[in-house]
Amino acid sequence: MTPFICVACGTQHAASEVVPAACPICQDERQYVGAGGQRWTTMAALHDTHMNAWRMHEAGLLGIGTVPAFAIGQRALLILRPEGNILWDCVTLLDEATLALVRALGGISAIAISHPHFYSAMVAWAQAFGCPVWLHVADRGHVQRSDPALRFWQGATHALADGITLINAPGHFDGGTVLHWRDGAAGRGALLTGDIIQLLPDATRVSFMRSYPNLIPLPARTVTAIEDAVAPFDFDRLYGAWWDRVMPEGGKAAIALSAERYRGWIAG
Q1: Cβ contacts of residue 251 below 8 Å, gap of 6+?
Q2: What is the pLDDT of residues 28-60, one digit of tens each?
Q3: Which partner for 121 in 5, 12, 48, 146 could form a disulfide, CB atoms 3.0-4.6 Å apart?
Q4: What domains can be seen in the chain, in order of their start residue?
């Protein structure tokens, strides 16, 4: 029995004797099946062709991403805390070097994930480090590999740890989540957004979409709701889902200005 991995989105599915017929994550209108059709791989095969790279984004925040890029190509973020490290989002590959390095840094006390496109191999990571994975209950139906490690929270916010708050920001997905790190950016606060709030290439603005690859927009009221969800929190820095999607300062103002611009164009 093998937990096969979708090549397009990187999601590891429940173990089976044969490859699944399809990946529901990719069949959803927010993702896609490649022009060449559905393709699958395994963790063992990834070990032969890929490895994980690391970058210290700031004191207490370590990026982990797979090279060459695999599937959607996001990188995860490990918040280093004396009380227990927290992994934000996830990557599919979990190799021996990653296991050794993370264990040397104190392991992982909890994993939290922004939305189903980044579920990747969350169960494999949870099993390796003996920790829970926190997901918003609204996205429970998108889980492709069940496990006792999965924990489902509900409501508008969830205090994951001291200074670490999960915020529900529905739009891209109903359970779309961003993470507020109170102590990030030297105490000014940081918001880890995945692509629920998408940092743009110039690192001065953000945007919001139901589907990025299929160019499906969100209505203005939903963008306002996302803006309102993060408004009560203090933060200056934004971390998106990819290595280069970081806004060092001015993040809260950028969200407000970008939301205003978005609503203006939707209104015509």
Answers
A1: 190, 191, 235, 236, 237, 238
A2: 999 999 888 999 999 999 999 999 999 999 999
A3: 12
A4: 5-267 (3.60.15.10)
